[in-house]
């Protein structure tokens, strides 16, 4: 039995029973299950395109450097501009979710980054590339928090780490594809057009297609929550919610309330602090492709090395999320934190070995391959094992998009400094000279300078990130219990 609406003469609403046969109930259940499955498939496809888009430009840094006569510091500024805009714009995703459903927001962001990606491929001047990278950051700012809250609402607490791990794993496949595609195409020409430009236009076309599919077929997970499956009754949320068009004042008031609620959560504050530090190495890693090419590896070899690292990260994110789920069952308030600290700590020895111990020569290809794979396997746990699942547990469900949005705002803005810092350190402190680089053979001296700058921006931040998690052993328990109590109170009021 479901519920329908009838209006009293006073205009108030009351509920009347509406009979549904068992066959009708079963058909509705199967339809909703199919809708959830299709939505998750398309959400993961959107994640694939998002990660592919992120990896495009770093994969062709060398070609962009030659096309626009730009050194490492200028290339770092491109990443800086995109990340700053992405960070500052991320809270907008939390505001938009209050008034629009997430499929619409995801499609809007996808179209935005698709247009900007195509425009980068068509740019003729460095400033044009910089402008469109800023637009690209705006699109990603809308998409990423909405994706994360969508996954948080689609999985229960006990398997949420695996859910985020699966999203990261599948998204990483897109990152691998985007990086490999751009790197392999970069050294060629198609119809008289440089290969790296063709890669950008191709990726923009695919992103637009995914955006249309998301807009047409993705269903909000909230619309399938609270459906009793073992009784003869179904509460149709769409019939129970009076949808109006809230005024701009009410939207901003509700947004401000959500912002204040999120900012007061100490678990959020600490995870953001470690994220600001912990994001620095990952932002610096955009120079890996360029570093390998300077060592002397050709496009295909550099693409393979980065693919091995990406495969390790993809597997690690899923494995880390799954392990953290198991640990959280044994140690509900500390299991995820222990997994995150282990992963952050492993970044220190791997960064030192990769950048300082392995001989920087093409003869070290096998050693680079094994190191990169194992490094990716162990340092990629934090987001899926701890950060994303813990965020979902310390705020009410209605504030999840907002907390993910503010996390991206702080982390993205501050980590943006890593890329230009690598360029500045390599040029000013370690003597990198872009004019000394051979377009075909690279330059051993410049590769060494870049590796020293990378090590400075990786090993120390990984260590600080590990330490930043420590206060959560005391704070997470309290915030989690507070969030559960608030959710129970809201349910009783409803």
UniProtKB/TrEMBL annotation:
Predominant cellular place of this UniProt entry's protein: membrane
Q: Which domain of life is it from?
A: Eukaryota
What membrane topology does this protein have? Multi-pass membrane protein
Read off the PROSITE patterns from this record.
Answer: MFS
Q: Where in the cell is it found?
A: Membrane
An example Gene Ontology CC term for this record: membrane
* TM stretches of this protein: 75-98, 105-124, 130-152, 164-187, 199-219, 270-292, 304-325, 337-358, 364-384, 405-425, 453-476
The leader peptide range reads none
Q: Does the record's keyword annotation contain Metal-binding?
A: no
Which keywords appear in this protein's UniProt record, sorted alphabetically? Membrane, Transmembrane, Transmembrane helix, Transport
* Coiled coil regions in record: none
User: Where do the Major facilitator superfamily (MFS) profile domain residues begin and end?
Assistant: 39-464
Question: Which one of the record's GO molecular function terms can you name?
Answer: transmembrane transporter activity
Q: Give the protein family.
A: Belongs to the major facilitator superfamily. Spinster (TC 2.A.1.49) family.
In Swiss-Prot or TrEMBL terms, this protein is called: Major facilitator superfamily
Write the lineage as a comma-separated list: Eukaryota, Viridiplantae, Streptophyta, Embryophyta, Tracheophyta
